[in-house]
Automatic annotation (TrEMBL):
<dbReference type="InterPro" id="IPR050325">
    <property type="entry name" value="Prot/Nucl_acid_deglycase"/>
</dbReference>
<dbReference type="InterPro" id="IPR002818">
    <property type="entry name" value="DJ-1/PfpI"/>
</dbReference>
<dbReference type="InterPro" id="IPR006287">
    <property type="entry name" value="DJ-1"/>
</dbReference>
<feature type="domain" description="DJ-1/PfpI">
    <location>
        <begin position="3"/>
        <end position="171"/>
    </location>
</feature>
<protein>
    <submittedName>
        <fullName>DJ-1 family protein</fullName>
    </submittedName>
</protein>
<dbReference type="GO" id="GO:1903189">
    <property type="term" value="P:glyoxal metabolic process"/>
</dbReference>
<dbReference type="Pfam" id="PF01965">
    <property type="entry name" value="DJ-1_PfpI"/>
</dbReference>
<dbReference type="InterPro" id="IPR029062">
    <property type="entry name" value="Class_I_gatase-like"/>
</dbReference>
<keyword id="KW-0677">Repeat</keyword>
<dbReference type="GO" id="GO:0005737">
    <property type="term" value="C:cytoplasm"/>
</dbReference>
Length: 190
């Protein structure tokens, strides 16, 4: 059975984190939907460094679908836009209640998940600049990627950890062998 992932983006999203996650998941044959969280319903966003990205759909069109994984890239003010999207908040709450995976990187664990009390009992990390805002039971500052299996949560620190984060998402969804198959041709894994 094919795995499905939702990657959400908005103006100010960190493009490295979004694009690497989308690319690596698709290399692993995960069915990835990229959804815009723009209030204007626009599919095109302007990322944090000015790169324009075009989503597959708007978040409002995704509410009736089930995803094995929802991924929140960081970047500012992108994470704030994700935090302020009521549809995404509802979907994240349902995802957590269903014990399905949520992944967040950079500012998103603190700015989005902490703001909506979706991380309070978990072990997590985030970008060092946001560690003080991270309202997690156990804050981990010395690991690039933190997996909390009990809470179906994967967090990471920032753009420099995006490839490791993306491969960990593949491993969680598809297994270690698939992560190695995807990573080796990219000269990441031996």
């Amino acid at each position: 059975m094919s795995k499905r992932a939702l990657v959400v983006i908005a103006d100010g999203t960190e493009e490295i984190e979004a694009v690497i996650v989308i690319d690596v998941l698709r290399r692993a044959t995960v069915d990835v939907c990229v959804a815009s969280c723009q209030l204007t319903q626009e599919l095109q966003i302007k990322a944090s460094r000015g790169v324009k990205l075009v989503a597959d759909s708007h978040i409002d069109e995704c509410v009736d679908y089930s995803f094995d994984l929802i991924v929140l890239p960081g970047g500012m003010p992108g994470a704030e836009h994700l935090r302020d999207c009521p549809t995404l908040t509802t979907m994240l709450t349902c995802q957590q209640k269903a014990e399905r995976w949520i992944a967040a990187i950079c500012a998103a664990p603190a700015v989005v998940l902490s703001a909506h009390n979706l991380i309070a009992n978990a072990k997590a990390t985030c970008h060092p600049a946001f560690l003080q805002q991270l309202q997690a039971k156990q804050v981990v500052s010395d690991q690039a990627v933190v997996v909390d299996e009990k809470h179906a949560l994967i967090t990471s620190q920032g753009p420099g950890t995006a490839m490791i984060f993306a491969l960990k998402l593949v491993e969680i969804l598809m297994g270690e062998k698939k992560a190695q198959e995807v990573g080796q041709p990219m000269v990441l894994l031996s």
